[in-house]
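re: ur question from yesterday

yeah so i grabbed the chain u mentioned. its 628 aa long if i counted rite. heres the sequnce exactly as i have it in my notes:
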Amino acid sequence: MEDSEDNEIRAHFPVSFGKKPKSKTSIESLHNATRRPSTTSSSPFPSLSSSSKSWLNSLNKNPKQNTTNDHNNDDDVAIGPPRPPPISNSADGEANDDDDNVVIGPPVNDNGNNNDDDEVVIGPPRPPVNSDSDDEDEDDDEYENRHKIPLSNEIVLKGHSKVVSALAIDHSGSRVLSGSYDYTVRMYDFQGMNARLESFRQIEPSEGHQVRSLSWSPTADRFLCVTGSAQAKIYDRDGLTLGEFVKGDMYIRDLKNTKGHITGLTCGEWHPKTKETVLTSSEDGSLRIWDVNDFNSQKQVIKPKLARPGRTPVTTCTWDREGKSIAGGIGDGSIQIWSIKPGWGSRPDIYVANGHSDEISSLKFSSDGRILLSRSFDGSLKVWDLRQMKTALKSFEDLPNHYAQTNVAFSPDEQLFLTGTSVERDSTTGGLLCLFDRQKLELVSKVGISPTCSVVQCAWHPKLNQIFATAGDKRQGGTHVLYDPTLSARGALVCVARAPRKKSVDDFQAEPVIHNPHALPLFRDQPSRKRQREKILKDPLKSHKPEAPMNGPGFGGRVGVTKGSLLTQYLLKQGGMIKETWMDEDPREAILKYADVAEKDPKFIAPAYAETQPKQIFANSDSEDEDK
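ran it thru and got these structure tokens back, copy pasting raw so excuse formatting
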């Protein structure tokens, strides 16, 4: 009976009455917000998945399949996947006009040729295999899909005010370091970051020096920071300073006798296997190997081979995957490689004198130790075979580079390698990320990162399967993260799906106002500006008030300041007994008025010399001289 009464009562209220559950945004809509615009202008769809794009592009490349639509009007827009070509029985490959061969709707899978019936087909179905051209299409699809390039979505880690010149991602893919020309390093944590994409820490390693290189240790518990100063720094995982390497004596000519670098650093990299060893290069023309447990001395000093005597800067340096070789790019364009072995010194094992025509910005070894990639200011990227270093295997030109930190990187399977381009003055393409095939040594694709900013650093993380590209100019800088929800894992997928926490009333904190009238002047309230100005105007010193003009005679070097230096003079002047009229008289007249008195009664000067004064004898006049 009670249940029936409750149901009757509930019937009077609407179904939506009561507390409603919070609406959750679907993951698909979140990723749609970060989807990159379609780069293919010929595609009628604004945005497609990577598999759909490759499928449509492969169909557009085949001329035989497009012959079936030649009789259609150009104004007709095809919606959905294109129809497959009819089976041609003639030798010329012409399409039959029989109505029985016309296929309506999407193509039907040929179950006779497929042995796996349970295979799940993702994306639009492929056309039936009926000709040799279809086999070529399948080969192209497999070639394009086997790289699995994550390019469908993009987020930007902002925060820098200038170009981002350094990038480092730890091995697990959870933390990202970005250094910039604004002298700061920002630390991002994908696990603790929400959709606002804000850094959790910002540090300035060396005041007034650009950040040029960042590198994680093999255990990812510390990282190396290289700036434009002569001293590299070591930080822990949370950004706390652990130490700073010593600086050398600039007055010592031989660099091997100095304890450290004497000029600005250019590059640095942690040893890939040993967590205590670090490599740095500098503008002083040397490479140095350090022990992070001893910041006061280096382990090894390497002086590269030079064609001319002097100091040529070492612009970049790198380890191979096993840490058994070191490669350095010299400012004269040469590439030098040293093999670490017992008794090794500064003499390089491999020396390429004219590797590039300009300074080298980056070097990269392949994991198998066969290929070396080099990037230079001359706008080229060269592929070298380490077994034959006389000439490059391939040189890719027309890749503008205006930054000394522009690098080159490999894909996780090392079938592709990628680099960024700089924006030129009259360019309309902007900063690009260029991907090349290692086997065929050809350009695979160009990805537009920013229309106005240059792309400097790039990396393809193997665990996340996400591409990182840093860009920027003199006014802004950021790290672009390219990913695909179907191919990538963690990283950007975690922070994009985490909405920022909404502010509530409990988060409001009013700033307390403390009144301490009898406390120190530091804590007193500031008086009004008007009263301050009036008080300053009354003060002759603060207002710089000029002195009053002279009203009468002065004394003591000042005009009109005192009435007299003695009390007697002051009293006589006040009584009118002393009258000073000499200031108003003519000095000549004042002297001449005593001339007659002195002549008639010479009582001052003449009586004193009356007895001793000689008799005055005047010369007689000569008439002859006067006549003449």
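noticed a couple things. The chain has a mean pLDDT of 77. also Residues 37-65+140-146 form one domain.
anyway ttyl
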